[in-house]
Amino acid sequence: METLSSIPFLVRDIRYGVPSGTTPQFEDKLRMSFLDSYCNMYLIETVDVVAKMYGVTREEADNYALRSQKRWKDGK
């Protein structure tokens, strides 16, 4: 079941309203959750950097993931 689209937007410091003539700034809580605060990069960017650093190709990563899924299924 897909649930990511139901994650709310966040508006900070709005408890007592916003000054007249200003627009509240909405933050996408889902997008924020994918940001690695250690290196200030999104996780997909971090994965790309690490894959290049260790020479892991997309095909190798996909094969590893498939093998992992098969092992899980066999152990079920």
UniProtKB/TrEMBL annotation:
All copies of domain Thiolase N-terminal, residue ranges: 1-74
Pfam families according to UniProt: Thiolase_N (PF00108)
GO molecular function: acyltransferase activity, transferring groups other than amino-acyl groups
SUPFAM superfamilies: Thiolase-like (SSF53901)
Coiled coil: none
Spans through the membrane: none
UniProt name for this protein: Thiolase N-terminal domain-containing protein
